[in-house]
Every structure is written in structure tokens, then in C-alpha cells.
Design a protein that fits this description.
This protein has one domain: Four Helix Bundle (Hemerythrin (Met), subunit A), CATH 1.20.120. The chain has 134 residues and is mainly alpha-helical. 82% of the residues lie in helices and 0% in strands. The chain contains 4 helices and no strands. The two termini are 15 Å apart.
Length: 134
């Protein structure tokens, strides 16, 4: 039985708001520094660009496999909620870390690592369910 992935949809909506916030920061810095493309050598703009780009690079796949996991293994809603919460926390930590420095930071490392954990676990749930249905 499959259903609309409401948990993943809520997580996606919250991360969507984060994405808009991060994009707005890029726009504000571009206007402030009068830079149309690239970062113009301005560290705050480079950090804002990287924070937004990192989210856009890593979140779509995580949300896709999370939605498939939610739709295919409805009995494990608690696990989907946990993975969704971890993904949201991971992306907030990553955005915070990248917004403060382009160097390695605890927030950036935790965000990257936890996003990968969510993606792997959700992928394994989907593969588990797929194997049961074959």
C-alpha cells in the first residue's frame, strides 16, 4: 500500500523555506557588494553561495529516497520521522557552518555526514521493500 508521503512533504517544505532564506542571503550580498556573477572576492558572498549550493546539491536525492521509503514502508513512520528530523537538523547545521566559514567546521561536517546517513538509510529501506516485492 502506498500513500502520499506527508512526513517527507513537511520536511521538504521546511527545507524549501531554508533554501529561500539562503538564496535571499546570496541576493543581499550580491547587491551589497555589487557582484552579478561569482563572489567577486568577497568572503561573505562566497560563504552564502556555498551554503545555498550545498543544500541544493545534497537535499534533492535525500528527499527522493526518503519519500520512496515513506511510501513503501508505511509501518515504519517513526523511522521516517526520525530520518526527516535528522535531515532537517543536518541541513541547518551545514548552512550554519558554511555561512560562517568555507573551512571545515563542526556544523559543516555534521551536516554533510548526517545528510549522507539519512540518504543511505532511506535508500536501504527502499531496497529492502523492493526486495520483498520481487
Amino acid at each position: 500500500m502506498t500513500s502520499f508521503p506527508t512526513i517527507t512533504a513537511a520536511v521538504a517544505a521546511l527545507i524549501g523555506l531554508l533554501a529561500v532564506f539562503l538564496a535571499a542571503r546570496v541576493i543581499v550580498f550580491r547587491v551589497r557588494f555589487k557582484v552579478n556573477a561569482g563572489d567577486g572576492g568577497h568572503a561573505p558572498l562566497a560563504q552564502a553561495i556555498r551554503a545555498h549550493a550545498n543544500l541544493v546539491e545534497h537535499v534533492p536525492l535525500a528527499l527522493i529516497v526518503l519519500a520512496f521509503a515513506e511510501a513503501s514502508v508505511p509501518a515504519w513512520r517513526w523511522l521516517i520521522m526520525l530520518l526527516g528530523a535528522v535531515l532537517l537538523i543536518a541541513r541547518l547545521a551545514s548552512a550554519w557552518g558554511l555561512s560562517h566559514s568555507l573551512e571545515g567546521s563542526t556544523g559543516r561536517q555534521a551536516g554533510a555526514g548526517l545528510t549522507q546517513v539519512v540518504t543511505v538509510l532511506a535508500s536501504l529501506l527502499v531496497l529492502y521493500r523492493a526486495a520483498l516485492m520481487m
